[in-house]
Amino acid sequence: KKIKLKVPATVANLVCGFDILGMAVHDPYDEMEFRLLETPEIIIKHIDAFGLPEEPSGNVAGIVLLKIQEYFNLKNGFEVIIRKHIKPGSGLGSSAASAAGAAFGANVLLGNKLSKEEMIYFAMFGEELASGVRHADNIAPCIYGGITLVKSTHPIDIVSLNSPDLFVTAVHPQVEVKTSDARQILKKNITLKSAVEQWGNIAGLVAGIQKNDFPLIGRSLNDVIIEPIRSILIPKFDEIKAKSLQLGALGGGISGSGPSIFMLSEQKETAEKIAEMMKSVYTEIEIESFVYVSKIN
Ligand code: HSE
């Protein structure tokens, strides 16, 4: 038995929704092919050029499969062939795609024994391997599709939100920002004033998403806690954000822990103009970049 999956990139956090809000996009995506083996080995093959480890316990997909195998006491193993297009370290949910794809693919081969919450439980081991933290904001939209709210991870409580008809522009500048470093630099304590502002934004964003209220989404895409600190790690962040808003973006911010930046727009033309602008800002300072114009998946 063999199955093939397309596993989407994800933007998570969605600005103010640190560790709780994420969305799946159409492009880029990874391709994964799964085979159930009669023997208990886990075989991971990467047919891409990223040089990721293939030893199962050191591979994001492999660790998820090992955990599933252990949980079900399986005599079977899995062979997974991964063609990654979502660049590792981009902030576009590359590790989440491998982890969520592994949980989803194994579940199909095992006859859909796992609930979505259980798939998330297993996929979080992959995120832990990749970044040291068992966060689910990228995995959840990867498995559920669209936009999701991670209400809690203990117990796993995921709310699937509406998917507004919006375009997503993302740019990945080729600079290294490690998720672990981008988490380390965050303040451990925040003021009540910032907390109130932030939860106003989060509530506004969720309400805007549910009501297809685009101006409300735009007004709520504000992060007063994480972005001011993390944006320092991303060259030209403020310039790209300001120029995107001038070109008509509703709003946007850092994708995940960076270095990618994303913007939401109502019109395809706006999203494409923003993509051109992003590319030229990085070309000017001789940083290679990749841009994607996509939709919420
Ligand atoms: N929510 C995580 C963070 C995503 O912002 O650190 C990292 O991929």
From TrEMBL:
Residues 206-282 form the GHMP kinase C-terminal domain. Pathway: Amino-acid biosynthesis; L-threonine biosynthesis; L-threonine from L-aspartate: step 4/5. Its EC number is 2.7.1.39. Keywords: Amino-acid biosynthesis, ATP-binding, Cytoplasm, Kinase, Nucleotide-binding, Threonine biosynthesis, Transferase. It is an enzyme of class 2 (transferase). Residues 64-146 form the GHMP kinase N-terminal domain. GO terms for cellular component: cytoplasm. GO terms for molecular function: ATP binding; homoserine kinase activity. Its main location: cytoplasm. It is found in: Cytoplasm. Pfam families: GHMP_kinases_C, GHMP_kinases_N. It catalyses: L-homoserine + ATP = O-phospho-L-homoserine + ADP + H(+). One of its GO terms (biological process) is threonine biosynthetic process. The keyword Cytoplasm applies. InterPro entries: GHMP_kinase_C_dom, GHMP_kinase_C_sf, GHMP_kinase_N_dom, GHMP_knse_ATP-bd_CS, Homoserine_kinase, Ribosomal_Su5_D2-typ_SF, Ribsml_uS5_D2-typ_fold_subgr. ATP binds at residues 87-97. The keyword Calcium does not apply. NCBIfam families: PRK01212.1-4 (NF002288), thrB (TIGR00191). HAMAP family: Homoser_kinase (MF_00384). Catalyzes the ATP-dependent phosphorylation of L-homoserine to L-homoserine phosphate. Belongs to the GHMP kinase family. Homoserine kinase subfamily. PANTHER family: HOMOSERINE KINASE, HOMOSERINE/4-DIPHOSPHOCYTIDYL-2-C-METHYL-D-ERYTHRITOL KINASE. This is Homoserine kinase. It comes from Chryseobacterium culicis. The gene is thrB.
